[in-house]
Specification:
The chain is mainly alpha-helical. Helix content is 74%, strand content 3%. A hairpin with a 5-residue loop joins strand 1 and strand 2 (210-211). It is globular and about 65 Å long.
Length: 303
Amino acid sequence: MATVLNVPPQAPARTAERRHSARLWQPRRRPSPVQHRRQRSGQQTRALPLAAEELLAAALSPSPGLAIGAAANTAVYVLGIRVLLAGLTWQGVLSSWVLGTLTYSAFGPGGYAIVCAYFIVGSLVTKVKLEQKQREGIAEARSGRRSLGSVLGSGFAGIVCAAAALALGDPFPWRVGFAASFASKLADTTSSEIGKAYGQTTYLITSLQRVPRGTEGAVSLEGTAAGVAAAAGLAGMAYALGQVDGTGVAAVTAAAFLANIFESWLGATAQGRLPWLSNDLVNVLQISLAAALAMGFAAALGA
């Protein structure tokens, strides 16, 4: 007797396969223009904060590089041009822009803050008892506004240190010299201006003879103390900003003091006698000596 096999119908399976195949071959729907714009807007919104974070991180790094340094410094100058012109001539503004750009590029916002602190404090002390100094004929020229030569006299060593750090790629030893150059110049400016304003008795550094206030090479107890305090204050600021370590603070302060003494000695012995030895050149020699001494002290002390 023959066996009858019950085979299930295949039509439903084939129907399901056709439906699945039809779904696979259906074209994808393109997003509408509105949906497309929303997608692009979302991608840009996510990308912009990321780009801003990367830019901010680069600007706050210890050595941002020349492109970031130029952009950051230019932004500061555009926003603060009125303040800058209160303490600088136009030639001073242009030369200080070079200093600021190289400083930010090599030493970041910490080094930049040191220059700003020097500029602010130095400008303020030149205005201490300014009318009295003008009556006595010992006030800064241009009522304390700094020219091209004055800026270079204050920042030449800093420019060299920043350029060397960028060129050699090793900023640390140059940070110490950079800080010392501005600490020494601030000490010089502060001691001179406070001595002119408050010095009771001034002595010629070479002979300790009493001389009138404002005499080249003259020192006073009040001015000297103020200069040491200014140098130590700027060195402490450099430490707080991570530019130098504890040993570097001592190296910067000592170098600034010695270079300031050298400047007074040079003013008493040579300045005025040699026609080519201008005040700006004396300043360049002073800050260069401070930078070299500080780097030497730091190397000897293992900073």
